[in-house]
Write a structure and sequence with these properties.
alpha+beta, globular
Length: 89
């Protein structure tokens, strides 16, 4: 979502990776993911959603990634009752 996509694109350009990394803003539940990507990154996304939504996102990535593609999950996972672990509760 904006402005996160703009910030990410700027940082990617500053580091000289625009030939290898793309940023796409959109509704991850309604819009199809680009086909034939090498990597999908979910950074601090999945903890905000329930199991059905997380399964939907992971399935969408699985179907869109190239064979042998990589799904990277960078997140803070919390207990079901949202009380811990302490650093992320």
């Amino acid at each position: 979502q904006r402005p996160v996509d703009k910030i990410a694109a700027k940082l990617i350009a500053q580091r000289g990776f625009t030939d290898r990394i793309g940023v796409l803003a959109g509704d991850m539940f309604k819009e199809p993911l680009p086909r034939d990507s090498d990597v999908h990154l979910y950074s601090n996304v999945l903890h905000d959603w329930g199991v059905p939504e997380v399964r939907q996102l992971i399935a969408a990535s699985f179907n869109a990634l190239k064979p042998g593609g990589l799904l990277v999950i960078h997140d803070a996972f919390i207990s079901a009752d949202k009380t811990g672990p302490l650093p992320v509760a």
